[in-house]
Structures are given as C-alpha cells and as structure tokens.
Design a protein that fits this description.
The protein is α+β, with helices and mostly antiparallel strands and 152 residues long. The protein is 52% helix and 22% strand. The protein folds into 2 domains: 47 residues, Helicase, Ruva Protein, domain 3; 92 residues, 2-Layer Sandwich (Tetrahydropterin Synthase, Chain A), CATH 3.30.479.20.
Amino acid sequence: MALNTEQIKRLREETGAPVVRVQKLLKELDGDEKKALEILRKEGFEKVAKRADRATAEGRIITYTHHTGKVATLVELMCETDFVARNELFLELGKNIALQIVSMNPADTEELLKQEFIKEPSKTMEDLVKEVIAKTGENVQVGRFVRLEIGK
C-alpha cells in the first residue's frame, strides 16, 4: 500500500511519534488512520508514565487576563529543560491551563486536572498535559496557580 505523506505528517504532529513508527504502523494497518492514532496515543501515554518521577526544575509562569479585565490567573508550569519551556506546545498548554482556571475556578491542581477542557470537552486537562509529555519527551507538571477576581 502506498502511504500518503499528509497522513503521516498529520499523525506525527498529533502524537509526536517518530515518522518511522507512524509509517510502519500505517503499513501494518493498511492505512487505517483512526486505528493508528489510537495505538500511537496509547503508546505515548505509556511513555508518559515512565517520565512521571523525573525532576521538573525548569518552566514558565503563564498569565491570562479575561477580556473584561476583572479576572486573571498566574500559572506555574514546570518541565525538565529550558528548551521545552520555550517550546510552542508547552506555551500553548500553559495558555489553555490559564484559560481553564479563569473560566472554571478549580480549587486546586488535582481538581483542575480532572476537569473537562472547556475548548474540547472530550479531553480532560490531564489528557492535555499527557499529550505534551508524549510529544516533547519530558515530564511536565502543573505547579501552583492563583486566580484573582475583582471583589472576591
């Protein structure tokens, strides 16, 4: 079966899996992209579990202010290296977490991670973090956060 390069590229971007692994899996599955995505995600999440104990001494402080100017948040998002802390995937995760905190006002990190993502309810916030871990190859953790609201 001839593989479509767009299909390979799409799966690679979605999962962070190596191109060779994506190609091999698509060949085995006769081009079934949906099944390949499911398998690659599962493999990625298995790798995430192995990284859970690695130290996260780098990271970024991410801020978000609601358009009304009445609610804002600061989020400490941690990773292993400053290289990943500058990565677009990492920064996008931080923005999404900050937006989630402003919108849903979780009591703590544990509650935050269990919440459905407001932009994509089929995923939890924990799923978003795991996806970034799988794609970057580094442990990523949500540290502290604070939510400020006028009059509260």
